[in-house]
Amino acid sequence: MNIDFSSLAAKYGTPLYVYDFDYIKNRYLELKEAFSGQKNIINYAIKANSNLSVISLLAEQGAGADCVSIGEVKRAILSGVSKYKIIFSGVGKSDDEIKEALNLDILLINLESEDEMKRVESVAKELGKIARISIRVNPNIDAKTHPYISTGLHDDKFGVEIDMAKRMYIYAKKSSFLNPVGIHFHIGSQLTELEPISEACSIVADLAHTLKALEIDIKFFDVGGGLGVVYDDELTINIQEYADMIKNATKKLDVTILCEPGRYMVANGGYFLTKVLYEKKNNKKRFIIVDGAMNDLIRPSLYDAYHKIEAIGKNGENSIADVVGPICESGDFFGKNVSLPQLEHNDLLIVKSAGAYGFSMSSNYNTRGRAAEVAVQDGIDRIIRKREVFEDMIALEKEFLV
Ligand SMILES: *Cc1c(COP(=O)(O)O)cnc(C)c1O
After folding, report:
1. How far apart, in whole angstroms, are the C-alpha atoms of residue 31 and residue 387?
2. Taking the chain, what is the end-to-end CA distance rounded to the nearest angstrom?
3. HSE (CB half, 13 Å, CA atoms) of 21?
4. What DSSP assignment string belongs to 90-102?
């Protein structure tokens, strides 16, 4: 990776997201390679980074998509993902979303409750269609991650217990409008240990064997996403061990593996560029105030997430500072107690590992336009989303002004 961040900042302005497309493509190819020898689809979890050009980059390589709203399903299709590689997950799909998903004829709808199954059944009946479904099993495994991104415990809102799942499969098999083809689990995000995933995997594989015995033909075994990445100095899961564990757990099942990585694909391919506005000291505490803010990258504020922050082209003695944005919230920060050299107006800082849950979680809070996004591929940079301007932000309100 050799990206000239200063010239990108000069060319496109700040705050700015920069994505290394070569990195993202390689991540996909590496994961794909790890699963070789078994039928599989890598369903990129679009919510991690929903930019159409990012999705299209992965679609070109053959990736599928994991979507959690009909909007994401449409993004995937627009970006060239084959509809037979699209999964629609999420605990709260509306009737309209279910209807559209059935009309679009995607690979499958992933169910998260019995109520939802009945909704999907009646919508399918109305449309005269048979809905291909999978069921998200909640294996009650502690994923050992941040509670906000843990999803595999009975205390979390996701999925259904094993016994309930079994009842749902039996019901679905009898229904004329449901075709249960998949089984799914996803126990959390930023997982750095293989053990919880492998426990969940064997619990769900056992259930799949039981279902096969009941002549419920599970064709897709979906292991979810959640693969952790290095933000600081974490030890992460070895991708080959991960894939081998899954191949091993499913070897008697004759299934296609579906894997739904989001963060893993894009986090470390993304950089958030922001310029220094001011330095200030409150008593002895040093603050660096930058032009980016929590509306651009909310992970530090939301999860107390750590991101490495570096100053570009500066040396000199470092001292500790908080890097904060202009928003009127004390939670508006990118880093606390960061070691940085003395900085001046317009110096450039890079917030690293910003490719996942960065732009996709951004907002217009404080009427701040969203940042522009730039791709770098084969040494060439190009804009993939324009900077939002004031007119964009008021477009849906203006006509109602009296
Ligand atoms: C969010 C999500 C993912 C992706 O999670 P990552 O931690 O980014 O890999 C995959 N599957 C489902 C169902 C999700 O909700």
Report:
1. 32
2. 52
3. 23
4. -S---HHHHHHHH
What is the whole-number distance in angstroms between the Cα of residue 259 and the centre of ligand 1? Answer: 10
Q: Which own/partner contact pairs does 6-11 have at CB distance under 8 Å and 24+ positions apart? A: 6/312, 6/313, 6/348, 8/273, 8/374, 8/376, 8/381, 9/273, 9/275, 9/348, 11/381
Output the CA 243–ligand 1 centroid distance in Å. Answer: 17
- The C-alpha R_g of the chain, in whole angstroms, comes to 23
Answer whether 262's CB lies under 8 Å from 66's CB.
yes
pLDDT for the residue numbered 194? 96
Strands annotated E in 291-366:
309-311, 318-324, 333-341, 348-351
Nearest to 149 by CA among 120, 122, 188: 188
Please state the atom number of ligand 1 nearest to the C-alpha of residue 228: 7
Q: Is the CB of 87 under 6 A from ligand 1?
A: no
Instruction: Evaluate: CB of 189 within 6 angstroms of ligand 1.
Output: yes
Residue 112 in contact with ligand 1 by CB distance below 6 A:
no
Mean pLDDT, the chain cut into blocks of 10 residues (402 residues total): 92 98 98 98 98 98 98 98 97 96 98 97 98 96 75 80 97 98 96 96 97 97 97 97 98 97 98 97 95 98 96 93 95 97 97 98 98 98 98 98 93
Q: Is 66 in the pocket of ligand 1 (CB under 6 A)?
A: yes
Q: 192 C-alpha vs ligand 1 centroid, how far in Å?
A: 14
The encoded tokens of residue 25 equal: 């493509």
CB count in 10 Å sphere of residue 193: 14
Domains, the chain, with CATH or none: 5-16+268-395 (2.40.37.10), 35-261 (3.20.20.10)
- Cis amide bond preceding 326, omega within 30: no
Q: How far apart are CA 79 and CA 119, in angstroms?
A: 29
Q: Would the pTM count as exceeding 0.70?
A: yes
Residue with tokens 């008593």: 283
CA of 356 to the centre of ligand 1 (A): 11
Cβ of residue 227 lying under 6 Å from some atom of ligand 1: yes
**CB 260 near ligand 1, within 6 Å:** yes
Mutate to test the pocket of ligand 1, among 138, 242, 260, 360 (most ligand atoms within 8 A of CB): 260
Is 328 catalytic? The answer is yes
CA dist 169 and 135 (Å) reads 8
pLDDT at 152: 73
